Amino acid sequence: MQIATPYLMFLGDVPDRLAAKTAYGIADWRPDWCVGQMRLPGCAADLGIPDLTLDEAVAQGCRTMVIGVANAGGVLPEHWVSEIVAALDAGLDVASGLHARLGAVPAIAEAAQRNGRQLHDVRHTSETFATGKGTRRPGLRLLTVGTDCSVGKKYTVLALEKGMRARGLDADFRATGQTGVFISGRGVAIDAVVADFISGAVEWIAPAADPRHWDLIEGQGSLFHPSFAGVSLGLLHGAQADAFVVCHEPTRTTMRGVGHRLPTIQEVIDLTVQLGCLTNPDIRPVGIAVNTQALGEAEARKLLDDLAAEHGLPATDPVRFGVEGLVDRIVAEFPAASVG
């Protein structure tokens, strides 16, 4: 799948920032690809880049309109169809990370055909996966797990890839969600894989490798989330993780989209070890990543210090304060993987 850049980011009329997390992820990690954004009345998200009309976007060289939205069920709102058709008529390709296939909407399919434009459904793959086998394979793998969905699992592994490479470690980000695939140009949206093949797809994403190579696998959902725990468990078993980082957002009291209480970090650690032992008896936590965006700096640093003391693990906000402590712990736990 070759998606033409640069992008016009379509945010629709999403109600909050989290609903546009795909767009934010691309803008944060591939800012040079994002020329502008297109928003409908009532949109509560803002990437901080220019608002453009379709004509302005084309004039500035945009080649693809990216539907940068992640909603429950991955549905395509009916009132967005006319905007997508207009983008195709203006000469843009359209790419989406939603579960709904663009080409399944007759008006969109017809517009793409008459304009000779491409439709990219990033959440869907033509790959055929085997069922997971759980056979031990060489190489090292780190997985991010969460107390909830949308707590920073992708940002943490992307920051770790950058930090570990800076320290001379052989590390690659492995995308398991639509935003990660947009960012890395490869990977599989695991939540669109048939359940029996989830763990096998992860084995395909992070196959046998050099014993010193790290695959940094983007986590999804939470083992405690009633909607997404099945995907999270398949990821854990397929990753055969040697190490994991717990990701957390400290201001939530219930899980996103449901009324269930948020699990504690210790509950996540304990259950991840218990279930992860099925495919890797040596699985262990190496740190805690906290999204402290809603906290002042002093409050954020105190929380991180308290969590580190409570759990005996390095705790940081990877975006705000960096990942040096996490990399230090990884090097200490797995010295044979260090370069030199």
3D architecture notes:
By secondary structure, this protein is of the alpha/beta class. It folds into two domains: 7-121, 3-Layer(aba) Sandwich (Rossmann fold); 140-337, Rossmann fold. Helices cover 33% and strands 16% of the residues. The protein is built from eleven helices and eleven strands. The strands form two sheets. The chain has a six-stranded parallel beta sheet, sandwiched between helices. Strand 3, helix 3 (81-89) and strand 4 (93-96) form a beta-alpha-beta unit. The longest helix is centred in the C-terminal third of the chain and has 15 residues, at 297-311. The model has no long low-confidence stretch (mean pLDDT 94). Residues 43-124 form the D-glutamate N-acetyltransferase-like N-terminal domain. It holds the Pfam family DUF1611. It comes from Methylobacterium symbioticum.
What are the key terms here?
340 residues; alpha/beta; Rossmann fold; 2 domains; six-stranded parallel β-sheet; 33% helix; globular; DgcN-like_C; P-loop_NTPase; EBNA-1 nuclear protein; DgcN-like
The DSSP helix count reads 11
Unreliably modeled segments: none
CATH superfamily of the largest domain: P-loop containing nucleotide triphosphate hydrolases
Percent in strands: 15-25%
Mean pLDDT: 94
Could you state the order of secondary-structure elements as H and E? EHEHEHEHEEHEHHEHEHEHEH
Number of strands: 11
Main sheet summary: 6 strands, parallel
Helix-residue proportion? 25-40%
CATH class of the largest domain: Alpha Beta
Question: Taking Cα atoms only, what radius of gyration do you get, to the nearest Å?
Answer: 20 Å
Going across the biggest sheet, name each strand in turn. 7-8-6-9-10-11
Quaternary structure type: single chain
How many domain regions? 2
CATH topology of the largest domain: Rossmann fold
Globally, the shape reads globular
Domain D-glutamate N-acetyltransferase-like C-terminal: 129-327
Protein name: EBNA-1 nuclear protein
Pfam families: DUF1611 (PF07755), DUF1611_N (PF17396)
Domain D-glutamate N-acetyltransferase-like N-terminal: 43-124
